[in-house]
């Protein structure tokens, strides 16, 4: 770090270029994923004919919309330095509970949805309790909850598929807004965007959001600043389960049915999206903005590889390789920034 | 491949030295850490090494144990000039080092710890029966009755230390360096260690005993070397000296001058009026850390809490701030009984805590303003976060405490140590605390920043804040405290005020 005198003596222009470089370095965590996204879009636009058009972009958004809701929730958990492995199972279970109560038990859609939300939230609180009060690592605690939720989902359906869904869920998950093209937007896109906006708002503009970042940044320091870090972690795990529940119910609306299995990809997909966006798995850095970019990278990659008409078996491992490369770029971008912090 | 030590019985203490240092010097950049120091250690001798923090004890220890090889002067082992290339080299040549923080493997057995990496093998597998037999014999020869199949972590710290010493002897050490070996031990454990050291002596081993605890040094050493300001000031026979003389030698004549200066200040302090009682601590106890701590603290008063590392003062501070639970006793703040379940409650009661390590208080990658507003965010910002309001608060605080550079958008990690410490204080001063607990507030910061920090503390004192100042540096207490408490091995050993408040008295009770 330069002394005061030398920084005053430096020329204005040099100062400005320096500031720009410093800004870019400090923002490396946010910039690297964005650049990855742009490269992917350019690549698929050039190599395929069907990628770069409005309808396809809308498809991409539709494909990542429910994922966006889960990913918003798990962004909170990852930001405070924990992990939640139960989200996919909780999503499945919640979808099944709502469908069972509405379609089979004859409950009102309000009661069915409320029950689903409560069940998901309850499991989130359980995750928080066993992590912060008992002291289990969240990795283990949520692994157990994953088993519970997945078991309950299958116990309720006993292998059957439920087709009678609450109309609200069918609308939010599967209907379209607007009658004519190009305004025929899937409602689920708007739902996903709403979740991202709410998540971003809470993390950026509320004191709770600040505490989440600080807890993830240095938990001991947060605690010695008088922050109840146990409550913060519990709240994050609860938010994550709540979002998973919502996503699970909307997903039944999107698919038109509820079943006790089939959402297994959601766990790894959402964690990949969050990390691809540049949120640190160690906590404290990143946010919903990053998750949005991560989701788009994820969506573009899946969609683009489809457009390339690669063999499905090739597609799977190629996707894995590209994810790995993107993550490596993120880490390098981060090192660049840390070098600057050390200077 | 393990060494099986051969015992040469040599109890002749006045024999030719086994280890000698001849005008050894060591610098770190421009700073002299050891200045022409002579030292000698005889076979079968226990040699005490004492001095204040920064006198050169640990540099000398690192030199003897092979951590440094770039020093001036000469080291002789058994009359041969040596220069250890590495700690492993020193170990090979018979120097065993036992650090204050034991480096034992808690989840392995005593036998495995003793053998370390050189486990006896048989047909490619570990030969457990032989390992246990040899380890048990080794301990028995040293007079230790410890079952070698016990898990290391199941033994009390004092016993682990004995095993650790036995381990370095097993790997061939004839000279054993003990760094602050008694700081974590109870009195009976200390006696047991001393009996063990006597056994080693009888077997011809030599021991360098580095310690802050002068009574322990006087009890066990044959001779005592005193270091002061990187120089050797005396080598004394144990039976020709006493605690008083040792303290004098350690802190030197300038202490008398300092004493006069402080005495004048103390007079001023006596005239200053302190307020009513703020904090009352009654028989506070936490098992394994401290016992029966009772004292009170008045508004507008700075009370120093002196003790060497590991005396229990950090645990005490953490209990006062609700960061750890205590087992027994009572806390009262402004006639309100307190029992915290977490730090949030302590904060709400008006307690502010500056920990001994800035990393336990700051988020270094986060912006300065976020660190400043963190502790009292709930009171500072009424509803939604507002960066402009936060920046304004941070700027006011930074101006107040003269933080340089005054740029609240920088990450805290970009500031110098002294300025980081000011941010720690700023965080707690956005709301006036009732009780401020400062733990080593001036550690690792330059002199200018030290003075600034102390001036802030004085200002808060004058505004009526009750301040508990915890430190291992007597000077810090002398420069500002109205009274001082001394802790030693988990107990409150003295309360000193007025003319009695001298460095000598602090050190004597610690």
Give the key terms.
heterodimer; A: 343 residues; mainly alpha; ABC transporter involved in vitamin B12 uptake, BtuC; two-stranded antiparallel ribbon; 15 helices; B: 510 residues; alpha/beta; Rossmann fold; 2 domains; six-stranded mixed beta sheet; 18 helices; 22 strands; 35% helix; globular; disordered N terminus
Tell me the layout of helices and strands.
The complex is a heterodimer of chains A (343) and B (510).
Chain A: H1 4-9, H2 12-26, H3 28-47, H4 54-79, H5 87-104, H6 109-134, H7 138-157, H8 167-174, E1 176-177, E2 185-186, H9 187-205, H10 207-217, H11 219-223, H12 229-255, H13 265-276, H14 288-307, H15 312-342
Antiparallel strand pairs in A: 1-2
Helix pairs in contact in A: 3-14, 3-15, 4-9, 4-12, 4-13, 4-14, 5-6, 5-7, 5-12, 6-7, 6-12, 8-12, 9-10, 10-12, 13-14
Chain B: E1 19-28, E2 31-41, E3 46-50, H1 57-64, E4 72-77, E5 80-82, H2 87-92, E6 95-98, H3 110-115, E7 121-122, E8 125-126, H4 128-141, H5 157-170, E9 175-179, H6 187-202, E10 206-210, H7 214-220, E11 223-228, E12 231-237, H8 243-251, H9 254-271, E13 277-286, E14 290-298, E15 302-306, H10 313-320, E16 328-333, E17 336-338, H11 343-348, E18 351-354, H12 368-374, H13 377-380, H14 387-400, H15 417-429, E19 435-439, H16 447-462, E20 466-471, H17 474-480, E21 483-488, E22 491-497, H18 503-509
Parallel strand pairs in B: 3-10, 3-11, 6-9, 9-10, 15-20, 15-21, 18-19, 19-20
Antiparallel strand pairs in B: 1-2, 1-4, 4-5, 7-8, 11-12, 13-14, 13-16, 16-17, 21-22
Helix pairs in contact in B: 8-18, 12-14, 12-15
